[in-house]
Amino acid sequence: MVSRVIPVDPFDLVIFGGTGDLARRKILPGLFRRYCSGQIPPQSQIIGAARGEHSADEFREMVAQAVREFGGGRACEDGTLDEFLTRIDYVTVDARGDTGWSELAGKVRKELVNAFYFSVGPGLFGDLAERLHRFDMADDESRIVVEKPFGRDLATAKALNASLAKHFDETQIYRIDHYLGKETVQNLMAVRFGNMLFEPLWNSQYIDHIQITVAETVGVGGRGGYYDKSGAMRDMVQNHLMQLLCLIAMEPPAKFDPDAVRDEKLKVIRALEPVLPHQIVRGQYGAGPDQPDYRTHVEDPSSKTESFVALKVAISNWRWAGTPFYLRTGKRLKARTSEITVVFKDAPHSIFGAEAGRHRNELRIRLQPNEGMTLDVTIKEPGPGGMRLVDVPLDMSFAEALGPEAADIPDAYERLIMDVIRGNQTLFMRGDEVEAAWAWTDPIIEGWQARGEVPKPYDSGSEGPTDAVAMIARDGRVWREIKL
Ligand code: BG6
């Protein structure tokens, strides 16, 4: 079946923080690409709202630049960009004062779908929610979109949820985790629940362990201020890796609808065992060839924030008791790759004898780049010399299997914003899910602080600290190499 673009209903979208980095890099170029594809009806309107004093024309120029820089090479000069810009407006708004709100209220057309994107720090979520009501801009149908970080611990996440819940129902709140918008992450559900092949084996009886790796080559760069207060545990594990873990481990939902899927994810998070100190390794990158070390990017020269985490996770339920999940993420690693590796158990008995060696099936799902799947299958090595066994990959690259169209998939943000307009919450985190994730994360971070733990150094361009290798080796297992 070829992909097809289903236009959404006409909408007015207000982007608070419309001149910020996320809006420039992701939200506005993403909207432009959806506009080019014909998914956004021309009568829709996108209103930037921020503190800066800009005219609508100045903002349009800013949008044009953002599209040229981050739009992914879509034809901008054929008139489509000019057309798109006629749908853009701007209002100077003070999130903590009353400036601009009446003007903004005058521009939002209530008869259309209304969405308000809070592309601002969480400290402003409550103020924005309150003013949307006070200035009579929000009703039961409007939607708000909020970004991570959704809190920095359970207490702050609860407070944020409470401040939003004062003005909006849970069905109106879209908490973004952009990993859920990635096509290959959604594909995890298709692979598991669309095939008969995998699900019967998808449990501790047949699976030895599962590895989830999200490796990045970038450092913290210009984001040192934010990152140093956060670290890999809050920035990546509590949200993105947790979501991957949930999709891999959850029970099949009865249907692909928002609450059915999110109920199952929540059960996984609630079944997570606490992580003991010897089951987790933190790291911080040192300098590499032409690369400064982590501490160069942050204010605190003796920062103890981790840019790498590797941990062993246990899920206490019938399906997974006895099968560990090893999670790993870090910056300035050897390659940018996100991959899930499912390592199956050995066959219970080898009819070929000990000399045939040890062979295991392994399923690897590559989330990015070169999205695809590989299944290692054991076969007989051809030729004489007895029954010699060898593992060979059944390798599938989605781009090769599905053709060039598969390579032109919408960016995560494009997909998610269109889901907001459609009113589909399946790929967004529910409040209780976020709180449960923090409830599991908090004791880990508190433990580090209480023990005054310092992250282990690792070389830029490596696979992380050697302690991470030792951690999995203690269980008689090895990490899959981080490589493209
Ligand atoms: C963000 C984190 O949420 O995800 C960043 O804050 C990280 O630190 C990024 O680099 C990774 O996203 P992606 O889509 O590049 O894998």
Q: Averaging pLDDT over every residue, what do you get?
A: 94
Radius of gyration, in Å, reads: 24 Å
Secondary-structure element sequence? EHEHHEHEHEHEHEHHHEEEEEEEHHHHEH
Computed structural class: alpha/beta
**Number of contiguous helices:** 15
Largest sheet: number of strands, sense, barrel closure: 9 strands, mixed
What are the distinct ligands in this entry?
6-O-phosphono-beta-D-glucopyranose
Domain count: the total is: 2
CATH topology of the largest domain: Dihydrodipicolinate Reductase, domain 2
What is the level-2 CATH architecture name of the largest domain?
2-Layer Sandwich
What key attributes describe this structure?
single chain; 484 residues; alpha/beta; Rossmann fold; Dihydrodipicolinate Reductase, domain 2; 2 domains; nine-stranded mixed sheet; six-stranded parallel sheet; 15 strands; 34% helix; binds 6-O-phosphono-beta-D-glucopyranose
